[in-house]
Amino acid sequence: MEDATKTLGLNLVCPAFSDKMYKIVQDPINGPIKIDGIFLELINSFYFQRLRYVKQLGLCNLVFPGANHTRFEHSLGTMFMANEISNYLNIKDEKLQISALLHDIGHTPFSHGIEDEFYSVYNVKHEDLTEDIINGKNDYYDSNIPDILEKYGYDKNEIAKLATGSDTKNKLLSVIISGSMDVDELDYLRRDSIYCGVTIGNIDYKRIFNTIKIEDDTIIGEEKSVPTIESAIISRVIMYKSVYFHKTCRIAQKMIGKSYLLNDDKNKDDLKMNDFEFMNKLLNNDKSKNLIKKILSRDLYKIVYKSPYTREKYDEISDKINGFNDSSYIIDIIPPLYFDKKSRLKNDFIVYDNNKKYEINKVSDIVNSLNKDINKRSIIVSTDKDNYDKIRNLF
């Protein structure tokens, strides 16, 4: 970020601070973003600065070398998108931009890469930690974000609920942060596609914002919005299939998850670490270091068996492979079993068709086809070189 003396780019400021110091962030996706006031103070807080060192896509850079972008820049981009939609829909409530900025502040090391393992050990999700950091409670009592919010007259609990999309009192703002077509997604799909070197996530968000409106405290698409919404859903589904659920990305992230479960020095402070601190901890533990060395040298497990998913088949495979050391193989289900609800597929965006409102999956054959396709699950077994032939012989 650079200090600036001239107005440039997006103004996300409180009027009282418009003549004071501000900064310009040069965002490669959205262009220059002007920031001051509460936004500048929040960005300069310790827990937000930590996001500079938490990769957006975990270990996907082992497959897509450009995927080294972080939760820091994505959070700025989500704030930008919140401001954009506010301008299009004439929403004059700064809580939207504040909540968008803070929506990912609770992400643990390597983002979604090992959150399943963290949940199995500590029974918390990154949304829980986001609320704790914004409220300054539990293990995040040292967060100064509550003081910053109070200084500017904002309710920390309200911002925490909005940031996690769980505020029932501010339904409109909540669905803009986390809904069927939200500002979080409109940034990460565009950003991830560019950094991964693919073009499928290039969504025309301005066209979307021009063809939606507010009704009953939610966002509705006009009839002419349907092709653009379809395009966004196509981008989402293909990004999941080709990037987020890429088999090698999944193997790398399952390997680091296994290394953490093997580690005999686990504690909740691990959730506060950035990627570098976390990797260093695992590298310096006798029980986890071997897997980490494999990851660092990209000596990843190889696929030894693949089958369409059924529960019976999964149990059969688990029984067959049970005699091997648990750290020497991975049984993965792609897409994961949790990826089957509207909140994940997001095929329930409301649009007009012949002057009546429908979920888009009721009016679009394209959306229905894509959603059926992504729900075709596979069981993938991968293993290290030492056990490859032995496990292959089992099948």
Overview of the structural elements:
The structure is a single chain. The chain has 395 residues and is of the alpha+beta class. The chain has a domain at 2-247: Hypothetical protein af1432 (Orthogonal Bundle). 46% of the residues lie in helices and 13% in strands. The protein has 19 helices and 11 strands. The protein has helices at 37-43, 46-49, 71-89, 95-102, 115-122, 126-135, 145-151, 156-163, 171-177, 183-196, 205-210, 226-244, 247-262, 275-283, 289-296, 311-321, 342-345, 365-374, 388-394, and strands at 2-4, 10-11, 22-27, 31-35, 212-215, 218-221, 302-308, 329-334, 350-353, 356-359, 378-383. Helix 6 runs antiparallel to helix 8 (156-163), helix 12 packs parallel to helix 18 and helix 13 (247-262) packs antiparallel against helix 15 (289-296). The N and C termini lie far apart (55 Å).
Listing every helix as H and every strand as E from the N terminus to the C terminus, the arrangement reads EEEEHHHHHHHHHHHEEHHHHEHEHEEHEH
Whole-number average pLDDT?
91
Looking at this structure, what is the CATH superfamily of the domain at 2-247?
Hypothetical protein af1432
Total strands: 11
CATH architecture annotation of the domain at 2-247: Orthogonal Bundle
Fraction of residues in helix: 40-55%
Shape, principal axes of CA atoms: globular
- The end-to-end distance, rounded to whole angstroms, is 55 Å
The CATH topology of the domain at 2-247 is given as: Hypothetical protein af1432
Which segments are poorly predicted (pLDDT under 50) over 5 or more consecutive residues?
A: 1-18
Q: Tell me the radius of gyration.
A: 22 Å
Beta-strand fraction estimate: 5-15%
The CATH class of the domain at 2-247, by name, is Mainly Alpha
Total count of helical runs of at least 4 residues: 19
Helix and strand content put the structural class at alpha+beta
